[in-house]
């Protein structure tokens, strides 16, 4: 039996995934959580072989949860599942140690097959998303520009962003200006929207 953990903040989706995958003869759902920061503790308690993790979750996002899980339990393989097939997410997920990346509208039989293949040590990536990711290339933003833009996305002022990142307000303005230029945006809100749509944040 393949022991499976499911992490998704939407109870209906989590329950549906659990019910559908639990019908498979060789898959047993051993844990379900609704927050990214609950993944590692649940995995330590249930010892799953595979974790199916959504990207958009409270606490920490699924990509950070995947990285934490790979550090805590390296034997547990991770599949990222998301509603939003953004090319930037794919690269970030792979860098976090995910072995699979699928979108939520994947048919149940294909999702079960992805769980089996990942448990066998293979990689499974949505082919359309892989093609989009290759065509788009890497994020043009530096790590610091990404940090600043992520905080700007939540509506933080220059002063608040500077305090949070321990930077001067001038440095924050410079990073925002660079991010706006690189994304071809009109302003920082537009830059954050563009970066978010591309999965860079």
Task: Summarize the model shown.
The chain is α/β, with parallel strands linked by helices. The chain has helices at residues 11-22, 39-46, 62-72, 87-95, 108-119, 127-136, 143-153, 158-165, 169-183, 188-197, and strands at 2-7, 27-33, 50-54, 77-82, 100-103, 124-125.
Description:
With 201 residues, this protein is an alpha/beta fold. Helices cover 53% and strands 15% of the residues. The chain contains ten helices and six strands. It has helices at 11-22, 39-46, 62-72, 87-95, 108-119, 127-136, 143-153, 158-165, 169-183, 188-197; strands at 2-7, 27-33, 50-54, 77-82, 100-103, 124-125. It has a six-stranded parallel beta sheet with strand order 2-1-3-4-5-6, sandwiched between helices. Strand 4 (77-82), helix 4 and strand 5 form a beta-alpha-beta unit. Helix 2 packs parallel to helix 3 (62-72), helix 4 (87-95) crosses helix 6 and helix 8 (158-165) packs across helix 9. The model has no long low-confidence stretch (mean pLDDT 88).
